Amino acid sequence: MKDQKNNIEKYHLHKAHPEKLQFAIYDLNEYRKRSGSMAAIAHSHSYYQIIWFFNDGGKHIIDFKSYTIKKNTILFISKDRIHAFDENLDVQGYLIHFNESFFMHNDVDIFLKYNIFNAIGNPRYIIDNETADIANSYVNLIKKELTSRGAFGYEDIIRFSLKSLLINLERVHRKGENTHLKFNSHYELQFAKYKELIEENYQNGLSVSDYATLLNISSKTLTTITKSVIGKSASELISERIILEAKRLLRFTSLQIGEVAFKIGFEDASYFVKYFKRFVGTSPKVYREQSLAKIE
Predict the structure, then answer these.
(1) pLDDT confidence bin for 296, thresholds 50/70/90
(2) 178: left (phi > 0), else alpha (psi -120 to 50), else beta?
(3) 70-100: per-residue pLDDT in tens?
């Protein structure tokens, strides 16, 4: 990990060219050699990223945890999540980037966003050889289609192949956990929409009532939904997202405490300190010192 800065570097995909295909796939070895030491500095993206490592070796840092890379490790990096490669440039695999617009916002897309690309959950899957063969067939289909840019429906084939890849990976993942895979409950859909609204507004100081209004439901119904789906209150989810961002800024930047507070929507730094301590158990200063001493 490199020295901290006042801001976490954020990278974008075709930000100045919205007319371009909002998707890209790279050979991981070529990408790492080209990016060099820059990719080993903690950074974030405004797009979604899938990293597939073919072989054992090295580590990858995501937010506050270091993940050991095993054969056929796949990492799902949601937009705005902080991560960093290690210094090893001799890696083999694929790197896939795509923007928000590549999700079409139907029920399955929302499910994939808030399960595979979960800002708090485990971002790592390790797949077996059979699953790797299936995944590779979808990647090859995508790569073939990318050579036919402009052909009728080529963007849709890429989008649907990506979605099929993600669905298959999630099926295998859930099977291993003996968890029934479904996403047809009205509560689950409303919950996912609520999570999306929090991502868009957590820095704006919105209350549970404000979010409920945006969803055209009552505050009581919203809390019933979150309790049913994840066992937490609606307010807990807001606080978790605010605290997550505070931790990221404290761990990965050298911003002053007051600057961190301002960045996440607190006008009063002293109130932010009390708020942080209430949920984390330590002050922002102590948290920073401890997290810099050792990544969790």
Answers:
(1) very low
(2) left
(3) 999 999 998 889 999 999 999 999 999 998 8
- Tell me: pLDDT of 181 over 50: no
Alpha helices in the chain (DSSP H): 28-35, 107-115, 129-146, 154-176, 186-201, 208-214, 219-230, 234-252, 257-263, 269-280, 284-293
Phi and psi based region of residue 70 (left: phi greater than 0; alpha: psi -120 to 50; beta: remaining): beta
Is it the case that residue 179 has pLDDT exceeding 60? no
Give the number of other CB atoms < 10 A from CB of residue 137: 14
Please tell me what DSSP assigns to residue 61: E
Distance of alpha carbon 248 from alpha carbon 55, whole angstroms: 29
Read off the pTM.
0.84
Residues whose CB is less than 8 angstroms from the CB of residue 250 and which lie 6 or more positions away in sequence, other chains included: 260, 284, 287, 288, 291
β-strands 59-62, 23-27 pairing: unpaired
Spatial neighbors of 83 by CB under 8 A, at least 6 apart, are 42, 43, 44, 60, 61, 62, 63, 75, 77
- Min mean pLDDT across 12-16, 210-214, 247-251 is at 12-16
Secondary structure letter of residue 106 according to DSSP: S
What whole-number percentage of the chain has pLDDT above 70? 91
Best CA proximity match to 159, nearest among 76, 78, 79, 98: 98
Chain position carrying tokens 């295909």: 21
- Residue 252 CA: distances (Å) to CA of 62, 64, 293: 11, 9, 12
